[in-house]
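For the sake of clarity, the format in which proteins appear in this thesis is described at this point. The record quoted next illustrates the convention:

___
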Amino acid sequence: MQLRLCPRVAACLALLGVSWLAAQPSASHADVQGASRLTLFREPASQSEGITVIHPQTDVSATLGGASLAAGYEVDIVSGATPRVFGGVDAVSAATRFSDLRQTVKSSLGWNVSDVGLLAGYSYGWESDYLSHTLQVAARGDFLEKNFTLGLAYTRNFDTVCDANNGLAQGVLALRALGSSARCFEGGQTETVKRDLDIHTLEPSLTWTATPRLLLQLGVSLQLLEGFQSNPYRQVLVGSQGRTPQERVPAQRQRYALFGRAHYALPALRAAVALHGRAYRDSWDLLAATADLWIHKYLMEGLLLGLHGRYHRQTGAVFYRSAADYERLGPAGSYWTGDRELSPFGTLSSGLKLTYIRSRQQRPEAWLDTLEVSMKFEGMFYQLEEGAPNRDRTKALVAQLGVLARF
């Protein structure tokens, strides 16, 4: 209880700090902002009920002079059914229903003076079988008449995963999967154990204002993960003898990504175009490439249309095999997985977003500087290989409603 109380108190203090900044005598010069979003993610399945995630999120922030303070709270309400065993003819029909509640509180403090900006943040996430503490620090500096901005961000995660107690297992093929999260993190019991996962993320970037209309950015993301990274509930059918041990992946993973972004304004059309690209590789020999395209266009005064397209393609991890190959050939070394995110696949996404914007310039008597109400829909289509995990889930829908107010 004490572990969960402290982050909640921290979030409450951050919210009080936002209120305090807004209430200062010079608050007329302060920028106070509040935003709320409700997102629905639905991934149907042809042979089970699929996955549904409802995600409400609220963020508030205030800026006064060079100081800024922000706080937020978000929830994932997850329900659905997924096979506990990857492989075998009855895997889909034996899908297990589940539900979970994930919550996160976060806060940050920033300081911007002239050409330098600093930021420090903290977040805490908890669910029945996972706890996460995250610390973040970031800095940016402008130079050459503010045409260039150099940024550097570092994030440190201290995560704890609930796992089945396999202390008496006779070898890795005898590892048992976690049956339930009901007794996770309880003291005085021996059914479950805590596993640590430490994550370090470093992201340097360089942004260039090439012209008044063109903004370019190039950056690198470096991430080191060490600890328990398997799904504790998942089993994999390995070998012709029908053994179904718990999923097992390496404890170390290094991830490397190179990304570039270009934003171009088209004032004559009251539009803007953004193109993002990302190339990825990791120590599990997984390669990936992603391209994103955004087009924003004012349809009329106060009504903004956004169009988005995305394509992602990746190879599989070096130890990944299809369900049939795991059964026929056995494991690739001493690791096996039923994670779709570690299999070869592609994703094509497209969607649109409508935003209604009302500003004080349009209505001088309004007590809000800006009010934005948005609605977004996006479809995702998966390109999966035969025998891939969750092969019966080939598409997903994302719908979102949002409101933002600036005072």
In short: The first helix runs from residue 2 to 22. The radius of gyration is 24 Å.
